[in-house]
Amino acid sequence: MNYDAFTAGINPGGLRSKNEIRILICYLLSSMEAPLAKADLIGIIVDNGLANYFETMDAVADLAGKNIIAVDKSEQELCTATETAKMISKQLTSDLPPAVRHKALCAAINLLAKAKRERENHVDIKRSGKGYRVACHISGGDTDLMDITLYMPDFAQAEIVKENFQASPETVYRMLLALVTWNQDIAAGILLKDSK
Description:
The chain is an alpha+beta fold. The protein contains eight helices and six strands. The N and C termini lie far apart (44 Å).
């Protein structure tokens, strides 16, 4: 294997070949049923130490320039696999270490799940007097299951509430339901489970 890529920021076992990085991009996009924003695609690879940032940027640009992957003109620059990328993925994925494939795919799936949670269970932060109102919404498909608004004295605390709510809206909903129905066993079970 010709190691021709920069290795700065790469974890042991990461990709050190430009060709491997291109194959990984094709594999990721071919494996996903939804497009990935260009920044997210690069983030998945770089944040997990799978390849160097600059090499990943170059690989995405190269693949897009050759129409192997499609990058739309939206603000997010959504990337999708073309038929050529799917063929490359099918034929060459075995050239990638299994651990790299697994790590990249898990990161992509987690990213899409997080985006879905945030889309279905959104949080609005609005300035109110000297502080901020944080409105948390849990959707149950075509109806809202819960709307709750909290007052936070500063924006940093409002952001913490938003992040924690979006990390596990179902836990917030179950706990609130247990508290308002005075079901102490469920509330204690949730707290015990989340403390582990």
